[in-house]
Amino acid sequence: MSHTTHSTHSTDTRLTPTAVTGSALARTALTRTVAEAAAEPVRLHADHNALKRLGNWTTADRFEVRSRRGSVVLDLRSPHLPAGELVVDLDLDRATVKLLVPDGTVVEYEDVEWTGSGKVKDGVGQQYARIGEYPEGGRRVRLTGRIRNGEVRVARGGVAMLAAMFSREYVEDVKRAHREGAVPTVDDPTRTA
């Protein structure tokens, strides 16, 4: 029985599972398109804790939020988010999601499956529905998935700004802005330095 060893300078070009090098894997990863990367949703999971994503934190248009007995704050006010519809897929169990959205945003939640108690608290959105007029040119946020004994709260404009300001992330952002001579952006993601 003969045993063959390969040195690191081998010229064997056959592609076997053990012959794939790190550089080949890197080339494969680099060929992945930007569209494929953008097609993947941002996944957020809060299990018995609080999770906040504030300011200019993503450029995605799809989000998956899973929370069990926790709370998630999702800031969707960034100008870096794509125009058009944003999709938030929910799987909540006795949890709360707070959406921070700009004025003029329409939040649709007809595709949400409800088990037990819960609701979407969106006072401005209810006014849009009551009068039958929705703002044109505004962003649309479509909620899907299922909620078991949970709720979604929608905060807009100044209320969204205050919700962002009452956070540790905002305090850290103000400290960073002071050190760098810039302006904070967590409270208003449309503001630039």
Explain how this protein is built.
- The chain has 193 residues and is an alpha/beta fold.
- It has one domain (43-180).
- Helices cover 24% and strands 36% of the residues.
- The chain has helices at residues 22-30, 34-39, 123-131, 157-165, 168-180; strands spanning 42-47, 50-53, 62-68, 71-75, 85-93, 96-101, 106-121, 140-156.
- Strands 1, 2, 3, 4, 5, 6, 7 and 8 form an eight-stranded parallel sheet that branches.
- β7, α3 and β8 form a beta-alpha-beta unit.
- The protein is globular, with a radius of gyration of 23 Å.
CA radius of gyration: 23 Å
Number of helices: 5
The whole-number mean of residue pLDDT values reads: 84
Count of domains: 1
What oligomeric state do these chains adopt? single chain
Number of strands: 8
Q: Give the helix level as a range of percent.
A: 10-25%
- The global form is globular
Largest sheet: 8 strands, parallel
User: Could you give the order of the helices and strands?
Assistant: HHEEEEEEEHEHH
Secondary-structure-derived class: alpha/beta
Distance between the termini: 70 Å
Beta-strand content bin = 35-45%
Low-confidence stretches: 1-32
